[in-house]
Inverse folding.
C-alpha cells in the first residue's frame, strides 16, 4: 500500500430547457482499497435520459461494490441495455474508472468519449484492449498509477460543444486534452478542473447547451494531513493537553478564534501579531503566531468557509471567489479543499461569553453545528475527517 489517494470531482450542466440532467455520476468506495467511479450518459435528454443513466450507473457501481468481476458487471449491463431501433445507438453509454489500492486504474469505456489521461503534464496515450460483450464494443485499459496522474472522463456533451457555432464538428477531444493540460499545470483540484472544463463547454454553447454535459476528473496525489483548532477547551486544565495533541500532529496547523489563538500563543511562548489589513469588509483579518501556518477569527470566518464548502460540493459557482483572494476564509478554503486529504479537528467546548450577547446571532449550539456542517461537506469532498472534542 502506498501513500497515494484519489481526488475526485465532477460537474454537469443540463440540456437547455431541461430540469433534469441526462448524465449521472456514481462514486462507490467498496473499502479503503477500492473505489468505483461510473459516468453514464442516457440517450437524449430530460426525464427519460436521467432515469436511464441513473439506473446504468447504479447497477454497475452496485455490482462492482459487491465484488463481482468487472467483465461480469459490464456483460450484465451491456446485455440489459437495449439499442434504439431508430438511431441504432445504445440507450445509455458509460465510462468506468476502478481504482485498486491507489496503485492501479482499470478503465472500461462504452461509447462515451475516451478518457483523457494527463501524466507529467502531457497527454498520455494509454493502451486499450477492444472486447466484444453482448455485441457491444467495449474498451478496457489497465494503468499503473503515478503521483499527479489526471483522468478526465466526459459525456459527449463536451466534444459536441461549439458545434455549428465556433467549430464545424464540435470541440475535438485532442483540443479538449490540450486545454486541460494547461489547467492541470495550474495545480487545481479535481472539482475545479471539472468545473473549468464544463464552464468552457457552456461558453462554447453560448450558455444554451445543446446536450447534457458532464466532466468527471480523478487526480492522483499524495495524502496531506491538516489540523484545525477551533475554540478553547471546556475545562481550562485541558488546555495544555489539547495544545500538545494538536501541535504533535503531522501536517499544517490552522487556529480559529481569538481566545484559542491566545492559548496557543501562551503554549508556544510566542506573541500573537494581529494584521491591521482588512482584505474584505465581512471577514476579520488574520493574525500570525510563529510556528502556526494560519491564525484567523472563529465563527464569522468559519461560517463563510462553510458557505464556500456547500457551493464547492454543489455547482461550484463561487470557486473564483476563494481561489485567488487572501482573506481568512479564502485561505482556509484553499488549505482544506485543495491541499488537505486527512483533516483533524480539535474542537473546544468552552462557551465564549461574547457569544452570549442576545444581540448576536451566535450561540454555543451554532458553533458546534458549524463544525458538523463543515465536516459533512469535507467528507463529501472525499476527505478523511477526525473530530476530537475538549
Amino acid at each position: 500500500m502506498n501513500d497515494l489517494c484519489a481526488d475526485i470531482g465532477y460537474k454537469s450542466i443540463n440540456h437547455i430547457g431541461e430540469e433534469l440532467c441526462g448524465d449521472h455520476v456514481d462514486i462507490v468506495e467498496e473499502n479503503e482499497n477500492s473505489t468505483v467511479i461510473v459516468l453514464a450518459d442516457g440517450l437524449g435528454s430530460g426525464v427519460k435520459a436521467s432515469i436511464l443513466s441513473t439506473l446504468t450507473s447504479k447497477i454497475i457501481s452496485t455490482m462492482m461494490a459487491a465484488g463481482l468481476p468487472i467483465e461480469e458487471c459490464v456483460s450484465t449491463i451491456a446485455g440489459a441495455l437495449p439499442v434504439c431501433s431508430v438511431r441504432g445507438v445504445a440507450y445509455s453509454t458509460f465510462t468506468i474508472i476502478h481504482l485498486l489500492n491507489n496503485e492501479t486504474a482499470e478503465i472500461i469505456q462504452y461509447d462515451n468519449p475516451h478518457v483523457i489521461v494527463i501524466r507529467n503534464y502531457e497527454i498520455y496515450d494509454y493502451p486499450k484492449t477492444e472486447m466484444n460483450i453482448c455485441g457491444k464494443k467495449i474498451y478496457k485499459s489497465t494503468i499503473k498509477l503515478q503521483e499527479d496522474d489526471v483522468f478526465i472522463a466526459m459525456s459527449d456533451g463536451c466534444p459536441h460543444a461549439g458545434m455549428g457555432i465556433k467549430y464545424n464538428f464540435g470541440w475535438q477531444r485532442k483540443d479538449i486534452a490540450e486545454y486541460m493540460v494547461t489547467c492541470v499545470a495550474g495545480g487545481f483540484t479535481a472539482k475545479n478542473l471539472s468545473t473549468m472544463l464544463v464552464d468552457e463547454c457552456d461558453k462554447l454553447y453560448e450558455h444554451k447547451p445543446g446536450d447534457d454535459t458532464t466532466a468527471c476528473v480523478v487526480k492522483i496525489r499524495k495524502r496531506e494531513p491538516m489540523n484545525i483548532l477551533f475554540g478553547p477547551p471546556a475545562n481550562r486544565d485541558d488546555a495544555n493537553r489539547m495544545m500538545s495533541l494538536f501541535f504533535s500532529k503531522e501536517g499544517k496547523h490552522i487556529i480559529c478564534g481569538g481566545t484559542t489563538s491566545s492559548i496557543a500563543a501562551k503554549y508556544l511562548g510566542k506573541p500573537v501579531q494581529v494584521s491591521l489589513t482588512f482584505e474584505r469588509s465581512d471577514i476579520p483579518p488574520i493574525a500570525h503566531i510563529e510556528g502556526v501556518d494560519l491564525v484567523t477569527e472563529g465563527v464569522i470566518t468559519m461560517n463563510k468557509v462553510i458557505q464556500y464548502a456547500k457551493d464547492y460540493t454543489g455547482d461550484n459557482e463561487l470557486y473564483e471567489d476563494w481561489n485567488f483572494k487572501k482573506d481568512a476564509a479564502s485561505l482556509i478554503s484553499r488549505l482544506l479543499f485543495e491541499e488537505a486529504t486527512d483533516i483533524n479537528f480539535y474542537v473546544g467546548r468552552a462557551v465564549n461569553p461574547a457569544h452570549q450577547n442576545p444581540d448576536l446571532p451566535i450561540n454555543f449550539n451554532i458553533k458546534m453545528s458549524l463544525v458538523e456542517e463543515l465536516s459533512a461537506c469535507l467528507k463529501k469532498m472525499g476527505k478523511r475527517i477526525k473530530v476530537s472534542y475538549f
User: Anything to note?
Assistant: The mean pLDDT is 90. The longest helix spans residues 46-65.
